[in-house]
Amino acid sequence: MSNFIFNFLNNCTPPCRCVLCAASCKNSALCPDCLSHLPYLTQALCPQCALPAHDGCLCAACLNHPPAFDFSFAAFTYTPPITQLIIAAKFSGHWSLLPTLGQLLLDQVSAAPRPHFIIPLPLHPKRLKERGYNQAFELAKPITRQLQLDLRPDLLERRINTEHQARLSQAERHKNMQKAFYTRHNLDGKHVVLIDDVMTSGSSLHAAAACLKKAGAARVDNWVLARAI
């Protein structure tokens, strides 16, 4: 499946055909049938970390060790074909997928409480230069445009070029993210939303939220495209 997506994108400029099945489609990288079969998160989830939880109550982990963020909203489970779509957009230069993926996230968070600001989880400048774009920023664009919210990438900086989280254990992820983020702004009493593509252990989002809370933010939510379950 992943090779098909990569090869297809290398020979096609969307929107024209679905990147999953090659069916004709307009104004989207995915056809209606493939959209309907994506791994949407439908089970009861912990409202704070978006992991499965009985009756949608706070899970034991969040009760015993509360993260710095307050709520998490996720559109999909991090399983195929969402995994391949994110990898293609994030690591293979196919950023043209990101507006469609951002719209899919918007569809799932449109009823969520509106924040004062939306902040895409930042990349370190070195990694941003290597990749050429921040996938979280590209995901956030259609959301802020349609919800008429302030997109503020300037409110949070990544000052440590951390090792790729995918290579690390959960304990290593937490250690890896210590002091990774910085803000010079006063966010006293503000409600902010962090946007990212994937939430795995939540270490990056926890570190970012802790930084924003230290700057005075009253509430920090996560809006993520996919959640590792």
From TrEMBL:
Name this protein carries in UniProt: ComF family protein
Pfam family, one: Pribosyltran
Species in which this protein is naturally found: Iodobacter fluviatilis
Domain Phosphoribosyltransferase: 137-226
Superkingdom of origin organism: Bacteria
Recorded family membership: Belongs to the ComF/GntX family.
InterPro entries noted in UniProt: ComF/GntX_DNA_util-trans, PRTase-like, PRTase_dom
